[in-house]
Amino acid sequence: MLDAYAEAATAVTELVARIPDDAWDRPALGEWDLRALVGHTSRSFVTVLTYLGRPAEREDVPDPEGYYALLPSMTGEGFDQAAVAQRGRDAGAALGDDPAGAFRDLADRAVAAARAADPDALIETIAGGLRVASYVPTRTVELVVHGHDIAAATGLDVTFSEGTTAGVAALLARTGVRLGHGPAIIHALTGRAPLPAGFSVV
What we know:
With 202 residues, this protein is mainly alpha-helical. It has helices at 2-17, 34-51, 64-70, 81-94, 99-116, 132-154, 162-178, 182-189; strands spanning 27-29, 32-33, 122-125, 128-131.
């Protein structure tokens, strides 16, 4: 759990360090420029640092896939995409004049905090109370997914280990099953049928 998070943090930090100085305002993902995309990715560290300081009284979510499965229904109509987009822009602005350095500092602090935390400790998150060991893998997913987004936007390479990649893929697949998409995922992975256009489990 912690090794995968630390590995993903290192890989994405090294990727961000290679972004050219003149690239930060370039289009990246949807309405985000590269700074906003990197800012959004940095929230994989910010939320760890924030939530580790918020003890929860009960376990509302038993596993990482339960966390992801809850996200679309938290507001009744699904996530406020405009608010998500704005948080990404705000996080990008918060990286300041040295975004790569600020990103590295957040990564170092979050990984150290996660390593020091009790994996069984209950923390309060946007989805309710869950254990550190259930929350941190969701941040690994975000780092790997958005690491690839950053690489695609910049033309730079990023590599994650087979173990980390397999863990992320398995968590996303379990989330899809939890959301009722199990047959569609099985059919796609075995070449029986393609996934619907725009299909996503997060």
